[in-house]
Amino acid sequence: MRIVFFFIAFLVCGFNSIKAQTDLQKGIDFFDKRAENHEDLKVDSTNINKAIAYFNKALQVKADNERAYDYLLLSYYYKGAFVVRTKADQKLAYLKGKQLGEEAIKKYPKNKAILLWYIANFSKYGEANGIVSSAKDGLADKVKMYAERLFAMDSTFADGAPHKLLGVINYKVPHIPLFITWPSKKVAEYHLKKALAVNPKSISNLYFYAEFLTEMKRNAEAKLLLNRVINSKPRLDAIIEDLYDINQAKKLLEKIEN
Fold first, then answer.
1. In CATH, what number is assigned to the domain containing residue 12?
2. pTM for the model
3. Cβ of 105: how many Cβ atoms within 10 Å?
4. Whole-number Å distance between alpha carbons of 10 and 207
5. Exposure pattern of 78-100 as b/e (b: 16+ CB <10 Å)?
6. Which range of residues forms the domain containing residue 115?
7. Is 113 strand, coil or helix?
8. Distance CA 3, CA 245 (A)
């Protein structure tokens, strides 16, 4: 009788594992089609919502599913950044990513992608609450701490994302006496240059360094980089992400030329 029980238990576990993998793959298939039927930067929500639903199913069937966490965090970030239109919906997507990420980084502390997309959701959630308010609440300090953790794990990960994160927070977070004193334009430029050294063709790396240069009133240098962004060809597997940066570059170039 005990043998029969263990055999049934084995079959159930095996079925659940297969079901989780099936849901995961379905989610990945929909995620890969996330930009389908887009009109310029207007993205249809159907595929990303289906991807999120399947990734959540994969986690319900098998809670210990590292790739499902990775993709789900990325999906929430993508939905908040490029799909939903209202600030309330954006904030909700980032909040879900933040909450899920807190759970995921505890389970998988060495997973660089999970940490990266947790930071992305966390920082965007703070941005939605207001940069000054978030800085005073300590959120900016936490983002910096997690970015430094990712940097220590692999500074070149994802086209130099750890460098880019540290660069961006050092020039975007305000210096607030008694609350936050670490932001440094010098540190920001160091990391943004390092990110470009890791991947000088990255549209995102080019754009953020150009944005920093405009903040420093170094418009001649910024124009060169902005024109490189504008003339770049978007990646087919990240077309909305790249089109967004190209569109931002056009707006910024127009602003500093007028």
1. 1.25.40.10
2. 0.89
3. 21
4. 52
5. bbbbbbbeeeeebbbbbbbbbeb
6. 1-129
7. helix
8. 60
